[in-house]
Write a structure and sequence with these properties.
The chain is of the alpha/beta class. The chain contains eight helices and eleven strands. The strands form three sheets. Strands 2-1-3-4-5 form a five-stranded parallel sheet, with helices on both faces.
Length: 225
């Protein structure tokens, strides 16, 4: 599934160039012309990375970055700025930015930095996992509670693997859809909710794990003592 990149910059010509180049690399691209729109898109879509200009109307890039980090959103952020001052870069990193590119820049360099940041940010998916009395083998797609096998579908186990990789942080419906369902199957949010309901029922057969709903942010795995 293509990763979604959000490009937030008030320069329409630059956005057009970036969109064309990122799409040529196989990314799905969202555009924002100001900081307010960038925050809205970051909240409503499963964004893999944000290319974020600092000087934007309504809300500047620093505020966008700070707001997302205060919400617990760890989406990778590469900041763009026309200013090359070291203090600007320090400010961005202190707010939680992952990288910094000074305008004017090479499109090839930006694409390389995006690829590098994405590689660093992708969580490793464990193959054998034990959580309390539960044991999951994602190489064989099996599960057991207290050594007693419990039947899960392959898709349910794929969802559990993603939830476990997030380590208590929420997974949005869009992220489930983008990462686990091919678009030609026409999945919907209802598809995710149905699978989550089935997962909850199966996890309730044992002890130690549950799936909580986090309003506006999705679902997260809860490990209970």
């Amino acid at each position: 599934m293509p990763l979604t990149i959000l490009i937030a910059d008030d320069e329409a010509v630059l956005r057009k160039v970036l969109v064309r180049n990122f799409e040529a690399e196989g990314y799905r691209v969202l555009e924002a012309a100001d900081g307010e729109e960038a925050l809205q898109l970051a909240h409503s879509h499963a964004v893999a990375l944000i290319v974020l200009d600092i000087m934007m109307p309504k809300i500047n890039g620093y505020h966008v970055c700070s707001s997302l980090r205060k919400e617990g959103n760890r989406v990778p952020i590469i900041m763009l700025t026309a200013r090359g001052d070291t203090n600007d870069r320090i400010d961005g990193f202190e707010l939680g930015a992952d990288d910094y590119v000074v305008k004017p820049f090479s499109i090839k360099e930006l694409l390389q930095r995006v690829a590098a940041v994405l590689r660093r940010s992708q969580p490793a998916l464990e193959q054998q996992v034990k959580r309390g009395a539960w044991t999951f083998d994602f190489a064989r797609w099996t599960a057991a509670h207290a050594d007693v096998p419990v039947e899960f579908t392959r898709k349910e186990l794929e969802m559990l693997q993603l939830l476990i990789a997030r380590d208590g942080r929420p997974v949005t419906r869009d992220e489930f859809l983008d990462q686990l369902w091919p678009p030609e199957t026409y999945p919907t949010n209802r598809t995710i909710d149905t699978h989550i309901l089935a997962l909850r029922k199966k996890l309730a057969q044992g002890t130690g794990l549950s799936i909580a709903t986090e309003h506006r942010h999705g679902y997260k795995l809860v490990v209970m003592p």
